[in-house]
């Protein structure tokens, strides 16, 4: 059970709260959760998966801290930013760049034959505003 936008793997080494956070970010990037979309309440999502509400609350808190969600008592948690929005502040971009560095290093260390091709393939599956810009010609 759960929600169509979030698929959790209880046997994964990745903590459940991180899986929730990652699936929401992926749905935002793919355009399936546009800005203003409401997310299920913490209780509803926890109940749907049969997990502790603190786990969902931790995921939502991370998403709020990263600027992806805003929560109000009236509307609950809604998507606050998406691919078409202006770039995030420099500290957010620096943190993201560090995580990309580690992920690419991991792929390289695992012998992924063409890391750049994998990156292009992933980018092609995201919402249009996130796709790599065409190369400039001089």
UniProtKB/TrEMBL annotation:
<keyword id="KW-0238">DNA-binding</keyword>
<dbReference type="InterPro" id="IPR036390">
    <property type="entry name" value="WH_DNA-bd_sf"/>
</dbReference>
<dbReference type="Pfam" id="PF00392">
    <property type="entry name" value="GntR"/>
</dbReference>
<dbReference type="InterPro" id="IPR036388">
    <property type="entry name" value="WH-like_DNA-bd_sf"/>
</dbReference>
<keyword id="KW-0804">Transcription</keyword>
<feature type="domain" description="HTH gntR-type">
    <location>
        <begin position="14"/>
        <end position="82"/>
    </location>
</feature>
<dbReference type="InterPro" id="IPR000524">
    <property type="entry name" value="Tscrpt_reg_HTH_GntR"/>
</dbReference>
<protein>
    <submittedName>
        <fullName>GntR family transcriptional regulator</fullName>
    </submittedName>
</protein>
<keyword id="KW-0805">Transcription regulation</keyword>
